[in-house]
Design goal:
about 260 residues; mainly alpha; 2 domains
């Protein structure tokens, strides 16, 4: 891995993210959530690359993808005051635009650049396109897993200790008191993906996040998920009145099989 180049890109990203700080404490907390999240995703992506015994170039590409995957989030929040793509903009596509506009990838080879752009563009969509080349597909899977692993940390902080400055953005402005539609329960049991745009309540968001376990691509990711105890914690945050024991048993059996 080109450590010097990666360090330069880390500094580039960090400097860029900090330009969105305004001095307004409540606003800046939301910017900091995404800045810190990116570095946590970078750690997971690096560990995933190591677990897969990738060569230096592919490890470097995976790490740069982690740095760029949410670089559009800052512009998204500045313009729309939300991280909800359904009511603002596709942040994967915006991140590609920001990488291009800022010259973030100017020092990266054309081959690496194409893989990174493809992975960032597809990291937040429901399904990875079947026609992707082998390298782009692999990096996309790595960033999707790394992203989910840290999102669990972020949302559990919100579910356990709500912060009025960031709570609304983390749960995408969804209804805090509503239950869970039956079709969402069925989707998780059938291991079907749930469209984010159809969510109406925070408890439905929690079920979507629980269902992510079936969309993780690598044994490392599931072992890390089990180690962090994220899923039992999310289940515990769902009120007993809407908590589904069948889903809980199915999901935990799946996680414990790794």
């Amino acid at each position: 891995m080109n450590i010097n180049s990666l360090e330069s890109l880390k500094k580039f990203f960090d400097s860029y993210a900090r330009t969105f700080m305004t001095g307004n404490g409540s606003y800046d907390k939301n910017i900091e959530i995404k800045r810190f999240h990116t570095f946590e995703v970078l750690t997971f992506a690096s560990e995933l690359a190591s677990s897969l015994e990738l060569d230096d170039e592919m490890s470097f590409i995976s790490c740069v993808t982690a740095l760029g995957h949410d670089i559009g989030r800052f512009e998204q929040y500045k313009k729309y005051r939300t991280f909800n793509d359904a009511i603002s903009v596709n942040h994967g596509e915006l991140s590609v635009k920001v990488m291009n506009d800022t010259g973030f990838l100017d020092g990266v080879s054309t081959v690496a650049r194409n893989i990174i752009i493809s992975a960032v563009k597809h990291h937040n969509i429901m399904e990875i396109p079947s026609g992707m080349d082998k390298e782009s597909s692999l990096v996309t899977k790595i960033i999707r897993d790394a992203d989910k692993l840290d999102i669990y940390r972020v949302v559990l902080g919100r579910y356990n200790s709500p912060d009025p400055d960031t709570g609304h953005s983390i749960v995408l402005g969804l209804d805090e008191s509503g239950g869970i539609a039956e079709w969402i329960i069925d989707s998780v049991l059938k291991r079907q993906k749930i469209p984010m745009k159809r969510l109406r309540t925070v408890n439905e968001l929690k079920m979507l996040q629980i269902g992510w376990v079936f969309d993780l691509n690598f044994p490392y990711s599931l072992r890390k998920l089990k180690e962090k105890n994220y899923i039992p914690a999310i289940f515990s945050s769902i009120p007993d009145s809407v908590r589904n024991k069948t889903v809980e048993t199915d999901v935990m059996n799946y996680i414990n099989s790794f």
